[in-house]
Amino acid sequence: MRLAVLSLLASTGGLVFAPAPLDSTTPRGFTTESGKVEREWEAKFVALPDAARMREAMRRLSARPHHVGSPYDKANAEWIRDQFRSYGWNAQIESFDVLFPTPKERLVELVSPTVHKASLQETALAIDPTSGQRAEQLPSYVAYSTDGDVTAPLVFVNYGVPADYEELDRHGISVKGAIVIAKYGGSWRGIKPKVAAEHGAVGCLIYSDPRDDGYAAGDVFPNGPMRPPQGVQRGSVADMPTYPGDPLTPGVGATRNAKRLTVAQAQTITKIPTLPISYADAQPLLSALRGPVVPAGWRGGLPITYRFGPGPARVHLRVKSDWSLKTLNDVIARLPGTTEADQWVIRGNHHDAWVNGAQDPISGLVAELEEARALGKLYAEGWRPKRTIIYAAWDGEEPGLLGSTEWVETHADELAQHAVAYINSDTNARGYLGVEGSHSLEKFINGVSRDVEDPETKRSAWKRNQLATIRTGTREARKDARDREDLRIDALGSGSDYSSFLDHVGVAALNIGFGGEDRGGIYHSIYDDFYWFTHFSDSSYVYGKALAQTGGTAVMRLANADLLPFAFTNLAETSNGYVQQLKALRDSLADQITERNMSIDEGVFVATSDPRDPVFAPARQQPPPPFDFAPLDKAVASLTQAADAYDKAYVSALGTSSADPSREATIRSINQRLLQAERALTSAEGLAGRPWYRHLLYAPGYYTGYGVKTMPGVREALEQHQWKDVDREIGRVAGALTREGTMVGQLAEDLSRLK
Amino acid sequence: MRLAVLSLLASTGGLVFAPAPLDSTTPRGFTTESGKVEREWEAKFVALPDAARMREAMRRLSARPHHVGSPYDKANAEWIRDQFRSYGWNAQIESFDVLFPTPKERLVELVSPTVHKASLQETALAIDPTSGQRAEQLPSYVAYSTDGDVTAPLVFVNYGVPADYEELDRHGISVKGAIVIAKYGGSWRGIKPKVAAEHGAVGCLIYSDPRDDGYAAGDVFPNGPMRPPQGVQRGSVADMPTYPGDPLTPGVGATRNAKRLTVAQAQTITKIPTLPISYADAQPLLSALRGPVVPAGWRGGLPITYRFGPGPARVHLRVKSDWSLKTLNDVIARLPGTTEADQWVIRGNHHDAWVNGAQDPISGLVAELEEARALGKLYAEGWRPKRTIIYAAWDGEEPGLLGSTEWVETHADELAQHAVAYINSDTNARGYLGVEGSHSLEKFINGVSRDVEDPETKRSAWKRNQLATIRTGTREARKDARDREDLRIDALGSGSDYSSFLDHVGVAALNIGFGGEDRGGIYHSIYDDFYWFTHFSDSSYVYGKALAQTGGTAVMRLANADLLPFAFTNLAETSNGYVQQLKALRDSLADQITERNMSIDEGVFVATSDPRDPVFAPARQQPPPPFDFAPLDKAVASLTQAADAYDKAYVSALGTSSADPSREATIRSINQRLLQAERALTSAEGLAGRPWYRHLLYAPGYYTGYGVKTMPGVREALEQHQWKDVDREIGRVAGALTREGTMVGQLAEDLSRLK
User: Fold this and answer.
1) Is B215 within 8 Å of A305 when comparing Cβ atoms?
2) What's the rounded Cα separation, in Å, for the pair B571 and B214?
3) Which of A321, A371, B33, B344 could make an S-S bridge to B418, C-beta 3.0–4.6 Å?
């Protein structure tokens, strides 16, 4: 914390302003007086979340498999709705009819040089009572794999990301007409069949290597938390970087009578049949490959020599699904606001799972329920939120963020008008508070995390995170952690229900959850259940409590702040960092390509190829021309100036109080516009080639899936060597930042006039 | 080659001199005229080495196990002597009586929680005829392990280097009273029992993990070149960084009547019993460990969860050796010099092996024999070396450089007077020419490697190395490879027979050998044999020919150069690089220690410890004070100036010829002193704590074994935090460089007066 204000100003080039007269413990957005009242209610709130209730709720919600369309999924939705009602909330179920394929036929067999049929079956364990509920379990598969029946030579492609295919090229190996086998990891799973199909593969297998989450990492279930030999990771392989949600209704809610694409028209279904398998099933296939030995970085933990292929192993893969629509059930609960009822503070966690899902998602959902119960109790004791609070329990997150996306698409206009912010959580475990989200909320969530106690160290979650960054960070990250007022939050990519709020509508969003200490290898398997969670994760639910305290405190502050707690200095500084990264990326691409072209000309690759294990030269590439980053620099400078002015006005406005009768109306007007600030960073036409994604600062990477690309238009044009698009994308992002700066500048001016 | 001279001068701060009138193809040390004659003989020479002869010699020499003291070791020595004689050389065997323990009892058994006795037996293979010669094979063991019989809990220590014990400390795990099990790799093997004993362990097992040279790296023998489950790496564990050679006769030759220490007095025998085992034998032991899961970097390729222990696995280890003296047989062959017969050019490769040793060392020895045969043939055709050429085939290299060390110690005074240089080789394989050695010979060996053809690419070995550096090097290394006149050679640590020449007597030395393409896991096992080599390595012996061409060309040039081909600019520039490294090391230690102390004070380690898997804070350390590097800077500057002057005088002296009758005498005087130049870098009192090592620029690391430490007095004082010793060691190294500079300056002056 030393030198924090100075350091922040130094890095943003901001103006020096007088020290805040606000008490340092006043939550952001409150005056000294209103902050005291807020803190009294918060103190009552944080005492309420109850570990025993979370445990019982988890036992109940994970008692049977509850994927979209299953009986227990519906039963859970109704139970959750009833819980909200019992807490004093106005709750109902909102249903959508979505395309959710479920498996009818699954076959993987090695047909030569020997014959071996994969079991495709996770083993029920006597010690783990829910693991044997086979009748209700979804068999291991990936949703939105196209149907297919192919027999082809096998090629091992490491994680199956674009760089892996460059390595294959260097060894002269093509996947054209082949079935690829990729390890889980290195990207979101849906990238693997997408990239494989782009390279001409006809089928895709994805397996969990024991090096990553099996025996290499620890004892396997049920002796330990890691993945046993038959464990399989289910999941979605829809092309979510194109659009998430129901593949048949992009951009609109999948209501009963919505206009739908045909399955054949849906862009997000894979081009090639795809199945996930266990490492027990993968080992015979990988062992049957020949060809060169793969590089050390590609090798997994099986006791075999990993080779590229192609073949001689030939594999027969068959996938066939039931492509009928299924009904999903979102639970939407409201606590009405008083004076600002049409400003919505939204909180959510999904409730559907691939199987029993005790960890994913119930560990997060039970915390959300405890928040709701506690807020209901405060409400009963007389506490009133100014703004309307909406708590959601989404269905259909697992197959593709279906429940949240369809709800957001249905209510997009209302959300654009009313939504203050969306706070998401998903799985939760022991360790560190992880936060990603909109940088306009970075300062706000830093304030919240300073007030949440870490259960293991009894220090604040903020302090523990700061010390962890000092322990593991680079020199720059350590300096930042020690000197900057706020810890940095990462930007949001995709992978949970914040996506449609942030990426499609431009609602400022945060994703929160604890983790980092518990290892596990049961993700999306039948073993993610109550037995596993209560033996190997947050078994005393103290981190469930901490999550409820974090989420609830954030919601309370957003709901009752005098002035919405956005801070634009953090956004401006972060944007500046992105611009510097993009310039460095351009320069490093220029260096790399120039160097590689020179090496090709010098004969480096020919001279260093072992004739017994030849490696070929890559193709020459065109280095990037210089780009004009000036519009971005200028836009960031103007946003920085406006943000500093806003912060100065903020301190002055909330540090004083007056009886000016116009004060309330001015603040209301400012809040109405603050609520729109994140929307200014979006573009109605969306990203190039994927118009559903409208935020110009954040998007999941087209070739990473979950992983974020910041300033994605510019960054992906650079990464994909589309040099002709770069200046245009720079202009679009600069336009958004300029709009934001103009808006914030106007807010600063209005706020500074407040008496 | 672009800008080469300019770049060299820029980096050494040298004076600009006129372009050399010497033809660029004139070998260093020759005039244009004498160089032409030299090149004509070299052209004849390089055509002579013969692949079929190398193959037959390998078959003969590796036909039976031939370790020190074995019948076939003696038979080989006699055969090699007779070969030399048949080539026209004067050859004899010089014998020494050395302590070489051979196994009498070996036992490794898991005694709890279950009982499992290790086989300690490599499997004979029907396809591989020599693998079944059990009666003559040395059983798997490590030489110079002390006798012992211990039963204790087991602890896994990764590679068993000092940093690994810091990691153990951080997990609260002590090896006091335990038997450690370490993977091969990460250091020379003898470091493992030494460091284990320093930490209180009572026994040490070393195993070959399949991730490193077993199935993870490729198919195992006999299907491929890698280590099969029962394969064991034998080796020496004597404390060679203290002194190599016979443990009973440090510093003196182990002649029959030499004064000997008792075994109990010998410093270099391990303090704890030690055995090497296979991964088949290691797996049950490692599987029986509990305790925390080890970090990802420690994990090997066995299909188990690697854990630290201690225990519950308890292991019983028994080692007992026959400690009798054995006779070793060095073969020493001479071609007499003419005008400079008392200047000796020495070349060597060992002949003893752990078992059959086709790769190690016969692949290098057969090349040396072909060199000798070819030189003998030139001699018969009228070629005469000015200087005496000595070719050695050393015995007892494997247990601890015994044959070379005892010979050098016996002849130390003569060598100090007569030795020009020593050129070593050992194993040889396909790929790149590897060169390490004295930087005064860097320019010379660059010249040789420019004239050797790489068999696979048909470009020069130099060019292939340059392109390989461009492919894999850092930005700085690439620039260096492209712009510097000479490719850099690494400094020599230990691990083969150059050590006593360079480190003890100060004879300029080079170690040469091809490699980098053939993978293998048969090192020091019964599978290193003719079958393996002819299936998986340089099976057409084209790299054997290339090695003979390299070694023989170097010897011919050293033997007939007008002026010995030392160049001190490379030495000066390299020394300057070392000084900059040492300063950077001091600064980075200061940063690291200060940062770590600050983190300890901030509570970083306490706050980031998972209570279910606790990690403890390291101890505070004292950061280094500033040191006075000025003496080193000054000494390097004066050496640089002298070296530049010498190079200028060299070009002028050899670029002209005259009939001045005093010329010959002056050159003779200069050569006499040039021959001493490397000796000026030594100190009679040796390194602190290990006086046998006298070179002040190069030594094997006390805690790395083979790995070199340059300017070892200073570097190891820094690495071991012995701050009080640093300035003193700086002074000693500066003194040596100053002596060198003075000597070179005088030589430059004398040479510049040459008419």
Assistant:
1) yes
2) 40
3) B344
